[in-house]
Structures are given as C-alpha cells and as structure tokens.
Design brief:
41% helix; two-stranded antiparallel ribbon; alpha+beta; globular; single chain
Length: 184
C-alpha cells in the first residue's frame, strides 16, 4: 500500500503515519511470515509506558520545535502482480534519499494525495535505471481502495489504545479516511 516514498503533510500527520505503521513479518520475527503486524513507530516492544502517552509526547515535541523536521516513510518492497519487487533497492535507494533531501531543501516537487506527498517522477533521478515508466508509476501510486483497507486495519490498532489516544491523531485519521472516500 505504501508507495516508494511518502512525505507527511505536517508534523501531526507524520506522527499519525508512525502511530499506524505496519509491516509484514519476516523470518526474523516470531510467528508466521508475511502477516501484517502493526508496530507503532517500531517501538511497541520497547515502549515502557502507555503508547497513547508516547504519541502525545511526539505531538508535544512538534509544538516545541520551531521548525519540526519533515517526516518520510519508504517502501523498498512494493511488488508487482507477479510478486517481483518494483524498485531495485540497494544502492538505488540513494535516488529516493536524494529526493527527500531535495524536498527538505525546497528543490523538488511533490504530488499532494489524501495520504501524503509522493514524488513527481520528473524529480526522481531515474537516469540509467532499467525501469519502465509503468513500473515507476506503480511504485509511486496511491490506490484509494487499498488505502481505505489500510485505514480500517490501522483502526484496529489505534482502537486498542483507548482514551489515551490523542484527539489530534484520531481527527487526522478521520480526515484522511474522508478524503479517500472522495476518491474514485
């Protein structure tokens, strides 16, 4: 569901992205391989206090910092219909990191979507990269139906947090869901 790279729209959105982050289990994790596992900010096993309060801490940090840093997510592992990775990975990941640095410095464009900002493919360094335009488009694609399911799945995770879930995160999640419902 996550495109090759996704920039949060602002600090609250970035905290929400981290709070609802999921990944597939691998052989390195206990249990079945390939199962979606919600692990907010990759901290669930390590957080020594209520995770809702942990999210609130990060929201407060954003308010305390004069210019909060941009927040990005990457997905090097998006696959095509045949199960092959779309992005070559390894050293080619520097191309994505370069776009992120250029965004931070105001030198690259982004495409605003209901779930965040993705690169304009013209701003990614794709020179000498053996990828079709279709493959590049698929790495960056935001599929509203997939994202609606993603939001529903994340609801299960944040629903367990209860009353300590910061209202800002719940409001942002609902506004993203509403924007996705406007998409075809």
């Amino acid at each position: 569901t996550i495109p090759l790279v996704l920039e949060s729209k602002d600090w609250v959105h970035g905290v929400m992205m981290g709070a609802t982050m999921g990944s597939e289990t691998t052989a390195a994790a206990a249990g079945a391989v390939g199962v979606l596992r919600r692990d907010p900010m990759a901290m669930l096993p390590f957080c020594g206090y209520n995770i809702g309060n942990y999210f609130d801490h990060w929201l407060k940090m954003g308010r305390a910092i004069k210019r909060p840093p941009k927040i990005f997510m990457v997905n090097w592992f998006r696959k095509d219909a045949e199960g092959r990775f779309l992005w070559p990975g390894y050293g080619e990941n520097l191309r994505v990191l370069r776009w992120m640095i250029d965004r931070i410095n105001g030198r690259a464009r982004g495409v605003d979507t209901p779930v965040g900002i993705v690169p304009d493919s013209a701003d990614l360094d794709l020179e000498h990269l053996n990828l079709s335009n279709d493959a590049i488009a698929r790495t960056l694609k935001i599929e509203p139906g997939e994202w609606r399911r993603e939001i529903d799945s994340a609801d299960e995770c944040v629903g367990k947090i209860g009353a300590t879930l910061p209202a800002e995160l719940e409001h942002r999640r609902k506004s993203i869901a509403a924007a996705l419902n406007q998409c075809s």
